[in-house]
Amino acid sequence: MKLVKSLLLGSAAGFAAVAGAQAADLPSRKAAPVEYVRVCSAYGAGFFYIPGTETCLRVGGRVRAEYTVGTRYGEGQDAYGTRSRGRLNVDARTATAYGTLRTFFRYELTVSSGFYAGTIGGNQGIIAPGQARNGQGGPGTASNLDLAFVQFGPITAGRAQSFFDFYANDFGFSTLRTADSRLNLLAYTATFGSGFSATVSLEDRNTGTGQRENGVVSPLGTAAVLGQDFPDVVASLRVDQGWGSAQLSGAITQRNISNTGPLFNASKDEMGFAIQGGVKINLPMLAAGDVLFLQAAYADGALGYLGWGGQFGSGRQTTAVAGNQLVINDFGVSAFGNTKSATGWSIVAAFRHFWTPQLRTEIYGSYSELSLGYTLAAQAVPGVVSRPLDPKEMILAGNLIWSPVSGLDIGLEVIYTRTELKQAVLAANNAGARPVLAAGGRLVKSDDAVAARFRIQRDF
């Protein structure tokens, strides 16, 4: 029995030795290293390293729900409007020997209806006396590549905020008459220390949002803007310090104008310019986060830099009615072929005050005046010689915004607008037509509007 037991134990030991030797001959497998996402703190909160690279990435966005009611100008028009907007931001940055390499893009999708349709920046407060407001604003979807640029050291290239802009509708739910445009540009920025910098930028206003180059008009014959020889040239000098910021900016634009009529047939180059100065003052002595903006601008042959587009007044236009639009042009040509530029100026003020860290108020407004030169009233009043309308406009707005948690805003805003014209115009009726005085029409020289908006917005 002892002999059998010894044989069994010896056999088991032998098998174990052989098995161990065979196992030692097999190739070993090591677990692949795990690439964890690392936080990148070099550029602020929310950035992380793209695995396997030294590039820091931040993905964010916004969702906005908005509802508005306002002054109704005709029975065919809705007295309310709704809007939903989604925004995606992608920001990638890499530290290099030449400075930070940054790429950024922002894409938006918006669905609007009612009073938002056809308005300037969705702002039904901007009005024009006698303007036709006709037709319900059905739902419409708009897509917008708002920003898409590369920054490498001092170079900025792509679609970016104009370097002319300072207060670019930073506060509020509505728009003011101020320079605020994203467009295609190529810019060089030099920094001098202590927060001082200077920028020279070539900017294509034809790709801008809101303030494109305005047209040209002639009381006789046909006037048109032909091709440009070069994009707008913008220069700015800026300082950013603990007390706030200040900027002085200027722009030069060139237009080739053709003019054809019974007394003339010629084309010529015309130059326009704009200049703007602004200051932003931090007011921590009132409350943390309090800010005051003050800004003034002047333009000659470049009214887009004041925030004036090719027409003023909001609402749906009735194109079937001749002379229905009240137009804004940068240049006018007389019956003798003489060219005269339109000029204008504007002032802007905006104030933000925090009542508590979660409750704030924004009060802002603008006032502007235009002198339109040879641009006559778009529709004549019987018995009255047409003159330039030369509008004067005041916009005032205020809101109260509650932020119960970080990134969430719930607010209510009221906006008031008043516009005055140099010459009375025929008022449009509910159908959008402008009946003459003999047919029961009436004249209007000034008008005002009141609107309110409720907004819920989440930024992340």
Describe the structure.
The protein is mainly β and 460 residues long. It has a single domain (63-77, 125-134, 161-459), classed as Beta Barrel (Porin), CATH 2.40.160. It contains one helix and 21 strands. The chain has one helix at residues 2-25; strands spanning 48-49, 56-70, 80-96, 99-112, 140-152, 155-161, 182-193, 196-204, 215-217, 222-225, 232-241, 244-260, 265-282, 291-300, 329-333, 339-341, 343-356, 359-371, 392-402, 408-426, 443-459. The strands form two sheets. It has a 16-stranded antiparallel β-barrel with strand order 2-3-4-5-6-7-8-11-12-13-14-17-18-19-20-21. A three-stranded mixed sheet has the order 9-15-16, with no helix packed on it. The protein is globular, with a radius of gyration of 31 Å. The termini are far apart.
Identify the overall geometry.
Answer: globular
What's the rounded overall pLDDT mean? 82
Unreliable runs: 15-19, 314-324
The third-level CATH topology is: Porin
Largest sheet: 16 strands, antiparallel, barrel
Query: What count of helical segments does DSSP give?
Result: 1
CATH class: Mainly Beta
Number of domains: 1
Main structural class: mainly beta
Order of helices and strands: HEEEEEEEEEEEEEEEEEEEEE
**How does CATH name the architecture?**
Beta Barrel
Task: Note the gap between the termini.
Answer: 81 Å
- The number of E-state strands comes to 21
Proportion in β-strands? over 45%
* Rg measurement, Å: 31 Å
- Kindly state the percentage of residues in helix: under 10%
* Strand order, sheet with most strands: 2-3-4-5-6-7-8-11-12-13-14-17-18-19-20-21
